[in-house]
Specification:
The protein has two domains: about 90 residues, no CATH class; about 150 residues, no CATH class. The protein has three helices and 21 strands. It is elongated, with a radius of gyration of 20 Å.
Length: about 270
């Protein structure tokens, strides 16, 4: 959403609550004496139910309360070189962006392209295991459990199952498919995580919903170069079909040190390495 005059919005409260009387549809935008209220189509939900007041426990823990996340995409509705305001329930915040501000961000990595996998059967078979746990998948792949994590989440009524493998040197000797290891070769040891997604039901999926946390700082993704597609559509398709697999590589931001503990979140749910 960089370059689209987009605004990240994060309402939060100190208590743990599954719902709160908050509606982003009551936020209005003002500029040059004109005021308008964005519609639901102008919003992107980062937390499921953001538009309807659904809150989730803060990923840092319940002692940090709960909240939700969304993005307001204004595009040509405002001129970002001129001051504008956001108002909600009688409170107003003004934005005035200096004209010297950089209007684009450099990619976090140089792009890496690999030939997409023509056969994902071996990856799909991993999700048929009776032990879909970090330890179970590590044993199945012949890897140390420190380098393998699993996660299951529900998105808009559909289920997504994630397998994450930190691409350390030992991956070369793992029981992953040799053709897959060959494709991963330029990414091994660079601070990257193999990410395989399976859905038994079919569910929405966007890699932009991932973010990385290390030592109290959250790192979000803004560039296609932060991901490498192993199956076509991993970045842009927006969905994993029922019984289908999507695979790609998350390239950790250059500020993240994979040698010390870090976490990968998909929305409010996450896993930690090691």
């Amino acid at each position: 959403y960089v370059g689209k005059n987009a605004i990240y919005v994060n309402p939060n409260i100190r208590e743990v609550a599954s719902r709160f009387d908050f509606s982003p549809l009551q936020i209005s935008v003002g500029q040059g004496g004109e005021v308008f209220t964005p519609t639901a189509s102008d919003w992107v939900e980062l937390t499921e139910g953001f538009l309807s007041g659904t809150f989730a426990v803060n990923p840092l823990g319940p002692e940090h309360g709960s909240g939700s996340e969304g993005i307001l995409v204004l595009e040509d509705a405002i001129d970002p070189t001129l001051p504008f305001t956001l108002s909600y329930m009688g409170e107003t915040a003004e934005f005035s962006i200096a004209s010297s501000a950089v209007s684009a961000v450099a990619p976090s990595h140089e792009p890496v392209e690999v030939n997409p996998l023509s056969d994902t059967a071996s990856l799909a078979d991993l999700f048929a295991s009776s032990d879909f746990s970090s330890e179970g998948m590590a044993a199945l792949l012949g890897l140390d459990a420190d380098y393998v994590r699993t996660l299951s989440v529900t998105v808009q009524g559909g289920e997504l199952m994630f397998l994450f493998v930190l691409l350390v040197d030992r991956v070369r000797d793992s029981w992953l498919d040799p053709g897959l290891i060959e494709r991963l070769e330029p990414l091994i040891g660079t601070g990257a995580v193999l990410t395989v997604v399976f859905s038994p039901t079919g569910a929405p999926f966007k890699p932009w919903d991932f973010y990385v946390k290390q030592e109290g700082t959250n790192y979000f993704f803004f560039s296609d170069a932060s991901f490498v597609e192993l199956t076509e559509g991993f970045i842009r398709s927006g969905r994993v079909g029922a019984g289908e697999v999507a695979a790609g590589v998350i390239r950790l931001q250059r500020w993240v040190d994979p040698a010390i503990p870090f976490s990968i979140f998909f929305g409010p749910s996450g896993v930690s390495f090691p």
